[in-house]
Amino acid sequence: MDIIKETYEKIKNMEVRGAGRIARAAANALKEYAETIMHLDDEEFKKKILEAGELLRSARPTAVSLPNAVKYVLNGLKDENPKESVIKKAEEFIISSKNATKNIGKIGAKRIRDGYTILTHCNSEAAIEVIKTAYHEGKDIKVFCTETRPRNQGYLTAKALCDEGIDVTLIVDSAVRYFIKEVDIVVVGADAITANGCLVNKIGTSQIALIAHEARIPFLTAAETYKFHPKTIVGELIEIEERNPEEVVEFEGKYKKIKIRNPAFDVTPSQYIDAIITEIGLIPPQGAWYIIEKYFGWIEHEQ
Amino acid sequence: MDIIKETYEKIKNMEVRGAGRIARAAANALKEYAETIMHLDDEEFKKKILEAGELLRSARPTAVSLPNAVKYVLNGLKDENPKESVIKKAEEFIISSKNATKNIGKIGAKRIRDGYTILTHCNSEAAIEVIKTAYHEGKDIKVFCTETRPRNQGYLTAKALCDEGIDVTLIVDSAVRYFIKEVDIVVVGADAITANGCLVNKIGTSQIALIAHEARIPFLTAAETYKFHPKTIVGELIEIEERNPEEVVEFEGKYKKIKIRNPAFDVTPSQYIDAIITEIGLIPPQGAWYIIEKYFGWIEHEQ
Amino acid sequence: MDIIKETYEKIKNMEVRGAGRIARAAANALKEYAETIMHLDDEEFKKKILEAGELLRSARPTAVSLPNAVKYVLNGLKDENPKESVIKKAEEFIISSKNATKNIGKIGAKRIRDGYTILTHCNSEAAIEVIKTAYHEGKDIKVFCTETRPRNQGYLTAKALCDEGIDVTLIVDSAVRYFIKEVDIVVVGADAITANGCLVNKIGTSQIALIAHEARIPFLTAAETYKFHPKTIVGELIEIEERNPEEVVEFEGKYKKIKIRNPAFDVTPSQYIDAIITEIGLIPPQGAWYIIEKYFGWIEHEQ
Amino acid sequence: MDIIKETYEKIKNMEVRGAGRIARAAANALKEYAETIMHLDDEEFKKKILEAGELLRSARPTAVSLPNAVKYVLNGLKDENPKESVIKKAEEFIISSKNATKNIGKIGAKRIRDGYTILTHCNSEAAIEVIKTAYHEGKDIKVFCTETRPRNQGYLTAKALCDEGIDVTLIVDSAVRYFIKEVDIVVVGADAITANGCLVNKIGTSQIALIAHEARIPFLTAAETYKFHPKTIVGELIEIEERNPEEVVEFEGKYKKIKIRNPAFDVTPSQYIDAIITEIGLIPPQGAWYIIEKYFGWIEHEQ
Amino acid sequence: MDIIKETYEKIKNMEVRGAGRIARAAANALKEYAETIMHLDDEEFKKKILEAGELLRSARPTAVSLPNAVKYVLNGLKDENPKESVIKKAEEFIISSKNATKNIGKIGAKRIRDGYTILTHCNSEAAIEVIKTAYHEGKDIKVFCTETRPRNQGYLTAKALCDEGIDVTLIVDSAVRYFIKEVDIVVVGADAITANGCLVNKIGTSQIALIAHEARIPFLTAAETYKFHPKTIVGELIEIEERNPEEVVEFEGKYKKIKIRNPAFDVTPSQYIDAIITEIGLIPPQGAWYIIEKYFGWIEHEQ
Amino acid sequence: MDIIKETYEKIKNMEVRGAGRIARAAANALKEYAETIMHLDDEEFKKKILEAGELLRSARPTAVSLPNAVKYVLNGLKDENPKESVIKKAEEFIISSKNATKNIGKIGAKRIRDGYTILTHCNSEAAIEVIKTAYHEGKDIKVFCTETRPRNQGYLTAKALCDEGIDVTLIVDSAVRYFIKEVDIVVVGADAITANGCLVNKIGTSQIALIAHEARIPFLTAAETYKFHPKTIVGELIEIEERNPEEVVEFEGKYKKIKIRNPAFDVTPSQYIDAIITEIGLIPPQGAWYIIEKYFGWIEHEQ
Predict the structure, then answer these.
(1) Is E259 an 8 Å CB contact of chain F?
(2) Chain F positions in Cβ-Cβ contact with residue C214 (cut-off 8 Å)
């Protein structure tokens, strides 16, 4: 149980950070723990592993990838040989998760034709991977990066792509509709995908999706399957975090009476999303529910 | 002709600025000049006034209000008593123009019901007048102001409204769709209105209009009639100015390869505009063409 | 002034009722009053007529047709010979108004092709006139009438059309979308038309218009020009009356805690209206503003 | 076989009524019958159970839940130990079905935020369960109930919710679009769900869905999985029943020539449905087909 | 009266053909006839001219331009000096009509930016003038011409533009949506414009307009004002001619049982038309009604 | 291996043609080959079969049905008894494929109600089967066939249906929107279905789908499951073939400078497709991905 507690602490203390890393740490802890359990009958083994899973899950209740990793591994408990199966499932998850962003890059790059202009928002590792892969396949591409107020993460994306040698143009968030006629495809990342195929992502994403929809430009989101939010399948709503007003403007006294609201994310409805690029393929947003059910086993008929 | 030349210089040197002031200066110059012309027959009078109009118009070729003012006054030349009529037209124009923003405030405020939340963009004198009038009529209102990158004119609007005592919330441009459910009406200003009812206004306006349209929130633009662009009636396109990239981001060497594009305006199509608030009433965008024709006499059947 | 006061009383006491009759009574009173005024110079005549107009207008402040009639007649005061002109305008208005519904019938019937199925809502004299005219021109038509809860005025329409020999089917208000595939055209009446081309009519009209729009079925409203609401051109909103809850359900004690809301009208946006059938022709809803301006002279440039 | 025949009779004679009860009765009959079959080899067992299923299915050919229950249980015949499996499947189905409405309530209530106003139509047990659950979780909610002509089932819903202490407002069916701006979410029940995600429900539902779609208000239907119509997967159309005209209006002779049409249901297309709340989770309407295939095994590749 | 009868015969016998030529011939006949009428008082003059107008109008009842020309000239009868005025109006009409296509070319060419790709349908003189003018202004343009089945008039357009040196690509009518992403603007001609802003033009136009609307590509129609259909303002519907099936396919016996339908025109709704290019300026489709009323005087308040 | 090589040659040389026949030939070759392999352990068997599959797949890299057939059969290699399973899978595939079009006919015909008018495009065996089945079930139907330029395959369809006795009308491709009001349902075939539910079919299909969508007419595509494009699930785009310009027009020298473009297919987005009729049932386009995954096993979690 040491490995479980240790991992629990590291996730809780944010020593382990990032959706992918958290998920893999949890899967690995379950694997190592399972390997140490000897001479127990199946029922006792299951009990111990379930407890371990419970603890890990409680380390960061709001991180989507954590319960997904745990659930994926725990699905092994239903098989005939639970210990073997749990270990195999954990290894499977780790490998798949490690390669996820790279696979997304490969799959997503196939949607980028030579000569395309791509628009992206904020600073998504997966979206950047798609663009870089397309570029390194020799395609002649251009990229529009939005500033992404209030924290200007678009500058990071612009810099990262520019450093690869890609032709990058930075624009303010308000200029998306102005430039959309020059854009061939929109590719963004994801903070979470819900059971009914909605995308929770950086504030501003939903209005870019609306603009792309109006202009009939394909809008794709790049999302590892561990971003698919399991609890939304039983109806849960994702609460949108509101962050510090000082991210928007630093106060200097005289403006004090002006309120500032600073939501970090917004929700893009599924009808504005043409496809979700996951490491296991391109899926329509309406398939999100099936991914949650099939790969993470969240639906129980007996529930 | 002194008054004409003097006014021409002042407009050219930007001593006289602002759409309204430029227009009134031109009208006044024509009036004073007409008053000085004595003992000429009608044809000679017309010739002189037409020359004066030509000169004034050339002072700032891109300002919409200038040719409108000149054309309005010159329409008097068609009447039986051209001198008298030119002077009367000039006076008419000046009074109407002076009261325009105030009248827009009164008319627009009628669209704001008690308890409404209003969203505005950038820093428009006419839109602010609408909001302030509604507030001072005793209506309990709230206002969302967008930052309006890259020059953050939204802060000026927020401050101006806050100073009146109005409840103001500042948001980033990307957050409009997030908050639109709390908004009852959008009111913005106008840089120009085209013959087919489109709105040329600060970059970002067209995406706010799209978002309001999607959410079925009324979108109104407040525009003095001298903002209606006369040449668009004969097909002319309005060119959108691109401004200095440094407005968006100050360069520090290492980012030099990132291009920056900074268009100042965008075009909102007429189908996303519910009404134009002018000083002569609320009109549908499809009526813009009629205003240009009727009040400024731009269409000639013999053309 | 006796005729003015007498007419004022009759309108106020609802002795004279109905949009058309009220309007004609006011026009007639102004005409008769003008005829009695002798030996006055134009300015004094104008003063007296303006006072009379003011009084008449105050008799029923919410009736749209009354200020329209008064304004129409008073426009005569601007002409060279005001007395003559006022009398002529009044006569013009009375004739035009008397024939309005009949002319609407003739114009609207041209939109009904042989074999058409028409859907109508509530109980509009003008809409019925359109349908009856088409039928008596020998066209083979069918009509769907909605019940029009809560007062079931649809039964009156069904009866009126059935008495003419027309094939009528009555349906509940909820069944409009079910039957819309069998419908070729929707024709309804109007309580008021606003400056930006919206239709204020019996509750339920706007959802029928939405359904027709979804199904690409033409939606027409039959409205005499005196139904065009003059004050909306200067921004005024039309308040929607909420009527007695007992129209919806008679109370019997135990249900007392259930609230009932009973708005009498709703507002159909102009984009769901294909054309307005007036006595002076078929106009697009965007032309409503022009009608108010041209025929009733509501816009003053000096305003 | 006695239990099968007895149950067949009870369903046929409507002694057993209601989608859920019929389905459970059939599953239970198959279970009890399976338990009585002894000493038969698998093939003979299968033959007997298939015959029993066939008979039960024929008891009410139009009830959606009946063939679903039978198919669910008969899927056990494919397993290695058919008898055991059939019994297990039957028990599974009964438990799941019994808890279905309660689970729908729990899942659906998660979509209701504190302060929400909900609109519902007709009188659906599942929709009421969602609303009541949200209310008893302590959420401050308001509800609009439509009258639901012609049988006014909306009064029953209003009464049921009012009796719980919920703030209920009753409106006529025509007033939905008028009030939609005050509504945060629409929740209705379902008579049937088709393979391509359409909703068959009380007449009027589809126009409420259209109105919600226009206003961007989420539209949810609460439907137990046994409401998913199996035959639609092989293309079958659901016929809409037309009921007695006297439900709409009682005749009194003179109106006799007016026809009355009274369809009981209409079909809401999937693109107006945001999610289906089932007892096994929230699914997009496009997932309906998968539910039919997976849980009821209706698709056979060899078909 | 000789000139009237002679012109009547020439129009009737199709010696004079083409919308513009017919209209000018009628205007000229009225002018010449008016000039020959001497020594009559105004009432007698009016009577004679009205009779002449009546006769001319009857020469080709379905040609839109003919009644427009007659009405335009006859409007002169309302002026103080009817003879002078009729002659002046006729001259005005002839000059304006002669220059109409050229003016449309100048106005329309302003909407074509350098580098644009234009799509056109069928073989419209006015649309070709717009494209040629833009090209001869030095703009680098490309053109897609549709085949325009069944008579392949697109080949004529392709040839005409190609002969000017323009880069032309011919495509089948079915390929419009495939190529629309490469198109910047659609410009077509007009057979008639209706009072509510619809376009009657060669079969296939309305689906091109729909495709342009879906892709947010501006759709413009080039139409001389004499193409605006006067009778539509009083509700008349334009009947669509069905032409000889052999235009579609030449029969060879064995296919005889296959029916062929061959409508020559279709109707494009106003909401898919961005602007109408007329010789007096660019107007929104909703302004069509105003053109008919103002320039041709078709609406009479007394009607 | 002889049977494999022989089949490879026949497919390559187009001796075996047609999506269905190619697929069945490949499955049969694998079956026969598997039957000849004796005395090998499972690993060696797998290796040989995989090689055979590889070779067959390379015979026609662009035919969708070939890799689907191979993949379907090769899925048997994962089972416990690979040889037996491969043979069984091959037989399954062949039977299912043989009956596919017939089953599609049966399923699709259920969507055709008595009295319906159907529109079809090009010459699809599956779509024709649907129409013929409906007709031979005794339904009174009418059919519109489009010409389908440039090769006029619509004539073949018209003839085929006419020969059955069906009432057929031929129209030009441009007339679809004109006649859509008379159409109850559109049924077309498919060249390929992509993972996100798009339809690749004969040029013109996507604009018919758009027109049907605008008019709210159901649009169905009839597609055997072997038409579902496997590689699209990992992001691949389908390249659209451009064919010989002479299919459009035969050249005669003087037109040589006119370019001709002749794409053979276009892509219909999933939101314009109401359902896909497959031999295993009616599915929503969003289910395409699931079919590819489930029946052909294209997604590997470890990928």
Answers:
(1) yes
(2) 216
Last-in-domain residue among F49, F73, F102: F102
Q: What is the mean pLDDT of chain E?
A: 92
Q: Give the residues of chain F that fall short of pLDDT 50.
A: 301-303
What pLDDT digit, counting tens, does each position of E266-281 carry?
A: 999 999 999 999 998 9
Chains C, D: CB contacts within 8 A come to 137
- Count the residues in chain F: 303
pLDDT in tens, D57-104: 999 877 789 999 999 999 999 888 999 999 999 999 999 888 999 999
Nearest alpha-carbon partner for F65 in F7, F12, F23, F101? F23
Q: Count structural domains, chain C.
A: 2
CA atoms within 13 A on the CB side of A93: 34
Four-CA torsion E293, E295, E297, E301, nearest 10 degrees: 40
* Beta bridge mates, F275: F220
Q: Are residues D281 and D221 in the same domain?
A: yes
Cβ atoms of B59 and B25 within 8 Å: the answer is no
Beta carbons within 8 Å of F80's beta carbon, 6+ residues apart? none
Give the chain C residue nearest F182 (alpha carbons).
Answer: C181
* Whether residue B213 is found in the same domain as residue B276: yes
Whether E122 is catalytic: yes
**Helix intervals (H) in B110-147:** 125-136
Residue C220: both structure tokens together = 């027409």
Residue B167's pLDDT is what?
97
Kindly report the CATH number assigned to the domain that includes residue C125. 3.40.50.10470
DSSP B239: P
Between strands C259-260 and D167-171, the pairing is parallel
The Cα E103–Cα A52 span in angstroms is 82
Residue of A nearest to E211 (CA): A216
Q: What are the angstrom distances between the C-alpha of D245 and each of A13, C148, C170, D256?
A: 70, 16, 9, 11
DSSP E208-240: HHHHHHHTT--EEEE--GGGB-GGGGGTPPPPP
| Same-domain check for residues A251 and A154 | yes
Domain extent for D236? 104-301
User: Taking the CB of residue A81, how many other CB atoms lie within 10 A of it?
Assistant: 11
E93 and E109 housed in the same domain: no
Mutation for testing the B interface, residue in E94, E276, E280 having most B CBs under 10 Å: E280
| CATH number of the domain residue F58 falls in | 1.20.120.420
E244 inside 8 A of chain C by CB: no
Q: Give how far Cα E13 sits from Cα of E21, E32, E56, E70, Å.
A: 14, 21, 13, 19
Higher pLDDT pick, C206 / D14: C206
D154 with D296, same domain: the answer is yes
Is C122 catalytic? The answer is yes
SS3 C118: strand
Looking from the CA of D286 toward its CB, the CA atoms found within 13 Å total 28
The verdict on A87 and A159 lying in the same domain is: no
Residue C253 has pLDDT above 70, yes or no: no
Residues of C in contact with E275 (CB under 8 A): none
Residues of D annotated as part of the active site? 122, 191
Q: Is the confidence at residue B300, as pLDDT, over 70? A: no
E123 marked ligand binding residue: no
CA dihedral B230, B234, B238, B239 (to 10 degrees): -130
Does ipTM come in above 0.95? no
Give which of D48, D49, D38 is closest to D74, Cα–Cα. D49
Residue F194 shares a structural domain with residue F63: no
Give yes or no: residues C261 and C144 share one domain.
Answer: yes
Cβ distance of B286 and E282 shorter than 8 Å: no
Which of F57, F80, F102 lies at the terminal end of a domain, its last residue?
Answer: F102
**Distance in angstroms (rounded) separating the CA atoms of residues E190 and E188:** 7
